[in-house]
Amino acid sequence: MKFTHCLFSILLAIQLSATAQFRFSPEKPQVGQTVSFTYTPQSTPLATDSTLEGRFVFYGAPNAMHLSRPTTATLAHQGNAFVGHLFVPLRGATGIMMAFRNSKQPKRIDLNKGQLYVIPISDANGQTVPHAIAGQSSVFTRSHFLYELGSRPDQNRVVSLYTIEFQQNPTLYPMYWSDFLAAQIKQKKPGYGPKVKLGIDTYLASRPTPTATELTEAAALYESMGDFPKATALRERMKTLDPAGSLVQKDRAASIRNETDWTRKKAAYQAYQQEFPNSSYTPALTVMMTDGYFKNNDIKGLLPFVEKQPVAHTDVLMLNTMAFQLADERRSLPEAEQLVKRAMTVLKTQPKPGDVTGNWDAEKQVRQRQLMNTYARVLEQQGKYAEAYTAYQDVMVPDDVENSDPRTNERYFLCALQANHAADAQPMAEAAIQVGRATPRLKTVLRDWYAKQPGNTAAKADTYLASLEADIRADQRDELQQVLINEPAPAFSMTDLQGRTISSAALRGKVIVLDFWATWCGPCIASFPAMKQAQSKFQNDPNVQFLFVNTREGGPLQRVHNFMNRQPYSTYGFMVPVDANQRVSKAYKVQGIPTKVVIGPNGRVRYRQIGYSGDPEATVNELTLVVEMLKDGK
C-alpha cells in the first residue's frame, strides 16, 4: 500500500504541476473533442515575451507513435494569457504534449522544466485511458520532439512515468518492457546492471515463445551494457527461431560484402537473391555487386547483371561514371555504349531517389545531360563522329557557357571538326574562349582550323585568337594587379647541377621566375608539367629566365641528380640551382614549398604564390600573365 500511495502522489503531481501556467477545458477531454487551453507565461522563461506560439504532438501506444509529428498551434493574446484550441483525433491519441516559444525567436522556449505541458485523454467514465502516462515517456524515447526543442529527456522522469503506467495497467508491460529497461540503463542508478539483466531474463522467461522482435530488443539491451556474449547468444537463438529473418539476412549480406574471391562473391549473391527475394539488404548489395563487376573488369558480366536489375535498384550515376571511364580509357567501348543507354532508359521511369531533396524533374534533366555527355564521348571514341556530334548538341547550352566544362567544350569542337561541322561549332568554341572556359588544346585546334580557312594565314589566326582572349585576359590582368607585390629582391648566387654559377646580378634586367622545390615534395613535382608549359612560352625570349631552385632537400645532392636524370625535365632546359643552406629561400620568405616567386626587370619581387592548386592550365595562365605584365612594365 505504501508503494501504491507513493505512485498515486507522483501521478497527482504530474497532472497538477503545470496548472499555475497551463489550464485546459474540458478537464477530462475525450477523443473527438476540441480542447481549449490557456497559457499564462508569468513566472516562466517567456514572462516578457509577447509573440508566442504553441508546439505540440499527439501521442499514444508505441504502435501509434506516428501521431507524434510536431505541429504548431496558433495562440491568441488575451490580457496576461494566451489561448488556443486543439482537436483530438478520433483514433490512437491518448494525450497531447506541448511547449511554448517565441515565434520570432524560437530558442526562447518554455518546456515546463523539461516535463512539457500535458493534456491526458480520458474515457467516457472520466478515467485516464491506457497509455496516457507511458505514452509521455514514448514521446521522450521514441520521438525527436524534445531534441527539436533543444532539450534532452530526464531519464528519472521517464522511468517514473513507465512505473506509474504499469501500476495502473499491468497488462501493458509487454508493450513497453524494452523501453522501460533501456531507460533504466540510461538512468544509471547504482546497481542498475544486475537489476536490468534480471528484468530481461524474467521477461523472456515469462514468454513461452519469444518473438524475433523481443529477442532482438533483449540482445540490444545486453549489448548496450557491454554484455556481448549474452547479446550474441540471443541473436543466435533468434536465427534458429527465424531462419529466414532479418538477422540471418543481415549476416549473409555481410558475408557477401566480405568475400574477396570474385567468383564466390557472385555465386553467393545469386544464392542470396533466390533465398531472400524481398530482402531490404538487396539494394545495397546490388550497388556493391555492380561496382564489383566494374572493378574486377568483368564488363561482359556487368551488362546482363545491370539489365535485369529493377529500376529502383539501379544507380544511373554509377553507371554513367563507369561508362565514361571506359570511354576515356578506350576499352570495352561497345559495352560502355550499352551501359550508358541502359542508364538513360532507367532514368526515364525511375522514381525519385531518397537522396534527392530538390525538384526531381529538374534533377532528371541534369542527369540526362550528364548521361548524354557520356554517350557522346563513347560514340566519339568509337569514331562515330556524326552521331557523337548530334549527341553533344544536346549537351551544350550556348546561353550558359560561363558554367560549361572546358573539357566538354574541347571534345565538342574536336568532334565537330571530324564530322565536318566545325563552322557550326565555331560560335560555341569562341564563346568558351571569351569567358575562360576553353582548354589550351581547344584554342590551338580552333586557331589551326581558322588558319586553314580560305583567305586566312597563320598570322591572321594568331590575331583572331588574341582578339577572342582579349577581354578575359584584360580581366585576369586587372585581378592580378590586386595581388602583385612590390618588395626588394635579395641578391643571390647559387651553383646549378652542371656546376654553373647562377646569380641575380648576371640576370639583372630580366624577368626571373623562381620555383622553389624538393624531390620529396609531391605538389612540387605535380606542378612541373605546368611549369614546363609556362617556360616553353618564353623559351625564345632572352629577357625571361626560369630557375627551378632545389631547397630544403635534406639529403645528398646526388638524390637531386638522380631525380633529374630519371625525368625528362633536363631535356626541357630546366635550370636547377641548389639552395643547399636554404639561404635563398629564407631571404625570399619561402614558408612552404612549392613556392613561385617572380622578380621584375627592376629587381623587385612582384609575385609570390605558395602551393599548387592542381590545375595546370590556371597555373600556366597566371604565370604567363604575370611575366607578360612585368615585361610590359606593369
UniProtKB/TrEMBL annotation:
Keyword NAD: no
PROSITE patterns per UniProt: THIOREDOXIN_2 (PS51352)
Segments forming domain Thioredoxin: 483-632
Keyword flag Signal: yes
Keywords associated with the record: Signal
InterPro entries linked to this entry: Redoxin, Thioredoxin-like_sf, Thioredoxin_domain, Thioredoxin_ResA/DsbE_sf, TPR-like_helical_dom_sf
Protein name: Redoxin domain-containing protein
